[in-house]
Amino acid sequence: AQTVTxxxxxxxxxxxxxxxxxxxxxxxxxxxYLFWYKQPPSRQMILVIRQEAYKQQNATENxxxxxxxxxxxxxxxxxxxxxxxxxxxxxxxxxxxxxxEKLVFGKGMKLTVNP
Amino acid sequence: xxxxxxxxxxxxxxxxxQVTLRCSSxxxxxxxxxxxxxxxQGPQFIFQYYREEENGRGNFPPRFSGLQFxxxxxxxxxxxLELDDSALYLCASSRTSGVYNEQxxxxxxxxxxx
Lengths: 115, 114
Known about the structure:
The complex is a heterodimer of chains A (115) and B (114). Chain A has 115 residues and is mainly beta. Chain A has no helices and 12 strands. Chain A has strands at 3-5, 10-14, 19-21, 24-26, 32-39, 46-52, 60-61, 64-69, 74-79, 88-96, 103-105, 109-114. In chain A, the strands form 3 sheets. In chain A, strands 2, 5, 6, 10, 11 and 12 form a 6-stranded mixed sheet that branches. In chain A, strands 3-9-8-7 form a 4-stranded antiparallel sheet, with no helix packed on it. In chain A, strand 7 (60-61) and strand 8 (64-69) form a beta hairpin. Chain B is mainly β and 114 residues long. In chain B, 0% of the residues lie in helices and 50% in strands. Chain B is built from no helices and 11 strands. Chain B is globular and about 40 Å long. The model of chain B has no long low-confidence stretch (mean pLDDT 93).
């Protein structure tokens, strides 16, 4: 079974600074996807960024980028130029490449952005 | 385009009762997944429905059951409620087409079991 681990329950960052959220996962599969989701206090889960395991290039979406280390099974999220609106719970998630679209989530990390 | 909606927003039940939660998928989506998110935890996969058939199930007992309707909306039913069933229940819809398709989440239903 696949597992996702987020070892930092909380982090804080100053507005405009950069913060990195860490995630490790365990799988024996070679074809999979990794995700970072954001869940603001309003509760609706929003996809931040996606990484396909077969791609060597790290995904980027504007201020958000990942550091995908496949051999180490590590998948960290870097948020640059942090904004107050980035404050939320962040979840790392795993999905197998085929069949079910089941997502396996980590426990999440609460990010606070200080003005 | 209407996003994923869920009803009700909040619900309070007592132990032993039954509950039905509803999810309307995003337009054009044919797959609905349900997740249970206990307080302070990440969501856990309950099951998924694709074209009205269950297409994958997580580690949840049979008293958790579901339905998907021809319009691809879905229901989650929980029988014999237990205190540990108190959680935020999320549904997510996607358009399964053989390649990666993003799941879009609803706002959730907060269930409290007393």
